[in-house]
Amino acid sequence: MSSEHERFKKMVEDSQDVFWEFDENANFTYLSRKIKDLLGFEPEELIGLNAFNLMSADEAERVRRYFDPISKRHLPFKHLENINIHKDGHEVIIESSGTPIFDEEGLFRGYRGIDRDISARKQVETFLRESEERFRTIAEMLPGAVFELDLQGNLRFASRRAFELFGYSAEDFNQGLNAFEMVVPKERALARDRMHQRISGEEVGGVEYTALRKDGSTFPVILNMIPLIKGHEPVGFLGIMTDITERKLAEDSLRKSQELLIETQRIANMGSWIFDAETNQATWSEEAYRIFGVTPQTFIPSYINFLNIVHPDDRAFVEETYSKSLDEGRETSEFEHRIIRMNTGEVGYVHLKCRHEYHPDGTRSRTVGMLQDITDRKKNELALQLASKSAEFANRAKSIFLAKVSHEIRTPLTAIVGFGELMEDAELTTEHRKYLDAINSAGSTLSLLINDILDLSKVESGELVIKQEVFSLQEHIKKLIDIQKQQNTNKNLSFDVSIDSDVPESLVGDQYRIQQIMLNLLGNAIKFTEKGSVDLAVSLAEKSGYGILLDIAVKDTGIGIPTGLQEQIFEPFFQGFDSRSHHCGGSGLGLTISQSLAGLMGGTIRVESQEGVGSTFHLIIPIQIKIDNRSENHLPEKERLHWSGPALKVLLAEDNPINIQLVKAVLENMGHVVTVAENGMVALDTLQANTFDLMLMDIQMPVMDGIDALSVLRDQEQISGKHLMVIALTAYALIGDKEKYLKMGFDGYLSKPFTTKALVDELVRVMPRENFAFITK
Ligand code: ADP
Known about the structure:
The chain is of the alpha+beta class. The protein contains 23 helices and 27 strands. Helix 22 (737-744) links the parallel strand 26 (725-730) and strand 27 (748-751). The relative contact order is 0.04. The structure holds adenosine-5'-diphosphate.
């Protein structure tokens, strides 16, 4: 054998492939040794055997088509995959290539070729195909859009959800799509940056973008990407994009409602908090932190830390009130206390209200609370209290001073007047007598003045006490007539007295103060009347089961009072408009004192007057009646005022005891419940803790008057949105007053003293109609 032949033989034997030859019937004529590794047979075992016998019947039929004996097309074949059966029975995947053999005459003599074992390669291919299929299935199942991109952002794969989400078709995809086109232009640079960061190995996490659909519409997405690495080089990205429209909407509405809460809490100076008894953790609103002067960054909102902010003097009270409400298993707890703001050290006031929630077994689940900063209100109240206290103090000091001075002056004055009278009998020259008359007249004027000042100072300092004793008005009037007759002597005025028959004989009240007022009114009437008459008429403005309203009218035909001055004449030291006032003697204090005394008795003085025609002064006072069986003046049975609606809760803000008695009696008789507050401040405090259907409020009250109290109340109602019906009670009624008070925000108006009918009428007018249908019997 030639060396070339030897070399060729060695190459065949050493090759990984199997060399073979078969004849025109496909019976093997040659097989290289490698067949043993491939199929487990020795070449000798297979020589003469048909090559198709190494396959299953089906596989043999499939492969035989390539060697179709009918068409006799004997063509070379390449990489023909076929499955052979190993000697031990398992299948081996083989890749065969072969060329036909022809003899000298050109007759077909069989095939010669190579077989190669490709089972391992096939396994890898199947594995790859399966894992690719798995990836696609997962990609289609995911709720987000799955992409595969190259480094330029060109899409190599997109899941069906991606097409749906962005509105692209498979056709668009086939024509080539770039991922950057799917983001709004202004975010593309950011997307590129993120891509580079990702390639350089930085952990980027989910990034939010505004995605752009094919139709130009946009929607928010979150994108997660991982780089795809081949060898050691990045070749692209695998990404998943999730539509977060709904999450964004929810976040947006949450943020808006949070902003609204923060803003409204700030406007209202009101914070809120919640304590979870299970986790022992508290959560405060932003405003709560602000009120306490702390920040969420530096302060842990626990109960202990909260107690630290409470003013040391109020700590025990707060702890006790709070734990007591829990011990008693109460639903709510409400109290006010002081705090020391952590940031400024200032003292503040808060109003705290909370609701405890319990489990069915009685243990607490949580407490929800609110706290309002009431520092400004509290400070105003305190300043007001202080101011009115010091004003009261100053007024009292003035009155005491006046009383002392008047007393000191009276002692030497008594001596002057006394010695002056003694000197009347002495022998004097005409001139000296003139001097003495002047001294005596000045002395008695001064005595009167000092008495008036003393009276006034007593009224103002609250020293003057109104007595309640039984007296006969008729008796007093008789005495008055005698006194007035003396005064009237040189004027010749007619003087007529009339007392209505229904004025009771026995009354209960302060007879001397009533007499003092009548004397003042009669004295003025005579003083300011030159001719004509001065009349006294006593009648009843009202007679009811609660007492009577007495009207004592003093009418004159004198100079009268101009309309514009009818209010001023009641001011201290007013001595008016006519030169006669000054010549007629008097101090200008008479009407002031009379009005004050009438007020103390729960009444008033009203004037009707026309200049040049005359004046009528009415003293109107509520008076109790002495029940006397023998008297003809029987009182009517207490009228029963029927009320069909629900009993009303009425707050009466009034300082005059007689008025309190009257109004209370009338309202309680109608079935209502009356609470009394002695001034505006007390009324406001009472309103804080209770609810009422109606308030009757006096205008003149100590500490805080009705006008101030109403304005505070209406301010508070701006926040609460409620409206309490308030009727004003005024002492000195003038024309146009009613409109003035209604404009201020009162719902109704009554001038004191008022009849029970006037009170009931105003109540009916003011309260909502559906409450009423009552009959006065
Ligand atoms: P006087 O001591 O001056 O009388 P009053 O307080 O009693 O002080 O009265 C105040 C003023 O009211 C009087 O100065 C007078 O101008 C006016 N006046 C009071 N009563 C009458 C009246 N009956 N007719 C006219 N003017 C009156």
